Structures are given as structure tokens and as C-alpha cells.
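Entry type: protein chain
Record version: 2
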Amino acid sequence: MAKYRLVYFDGRGRAEVIRILLAAAYVQFVDDRIDVKDWPDLKPDLAGMDKWEQLLADSALEATLDLMSTAIALGESKKGPLEKEDDIRRFKEHTIPVAMTNYDRYILANGNNGFTVGNHELCTVTRDLFTVLDSVLHHGVFALESVKLFPAVYKVYEQVKAQPRIALYLSQRPHSNF
């Protein structure tokens, strides 16, 4: 069985629900608690290199999570076929294009060289934006040709996909329906 290691701040915070779930499932794990002051040395690029980039990343991340939540809600919808089809059409024709327009502007204003914030390969929002795009493309909700209409977003998508470790993972990733 795999040995799990949970790395989080020396407090409850967002990791507490994970600790509770692991304990309830009788899963042994190493609870590696770190001091907040040590965080930048461990993960300096995930949320931006300074407070301003962190603020930019956080604001874009919230928009990404909203988009992801909307997509998940569509997949889990218990509405009738006609209502669900109408919701999916609105998502494809309005929600995603508006979000991509906003991301394109955001990246052009704050990113650099195909990154969402600064010049960081995998800051949190870059990774999450890639994941959302990868998912909507996988499900045919949005076409790659449509993503290309948003050049900054497309560049982020292609740049993340081309990173050697990510490309390897994607080439070996098992097929899934969601």
C-alpha cells in the first residue's frame, strides 16, 4: 500500500478535512506540518513570486474554480434532457467564451511567455487553467479551434502540455469519462 505524506502548515486549515478523511478510512499518513515562514522556500513559484503576483494568481484562480464548478454542476445535473441541453448550450456559447476572453486579457496584462502570472511555469492558476481546458476539450464542450481564438490562453495551454513531465503523464494517462 502506498505511504501518503500530507504537507501543510502547522494548523488545521484546508488540510484538516483531508486528515479527517484519511483517519476515517484507516489510511496511515505522515502529517508533515511546516512553519508558514518556510513555505516560500518549499514552493516559491506556485502562487507567484511576490505578494502582487500572489494576489493576481488568487483572483484568477477563483475565476477558474468558478468555471470548473459550473462544468461539474452541468455534468451532475438532474434536470430533464431539454433543460440540461439548454444549460450546456449556454455554457458552450456564453460562459466559456466570456471566461476565455477574460483570461486572454488577464494573461496579456499579467503573464509572460505563455504563463498566466509573471514568468512561472506552473503557478497555481496556470496549472488549473490547463486542467479546465483539458477537461472541456476532452468532453467536446469546447473545440481546440475555439481555444485558438484566444491566443494567450492557447499559448498557456500548449506550453503546459509541452512540458516534458506533463507530456509524459498525458501520454500515459488512462482514459476516463470525467
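Comment: Residues 56 and 164 are 27 Å apart (CA to CA).
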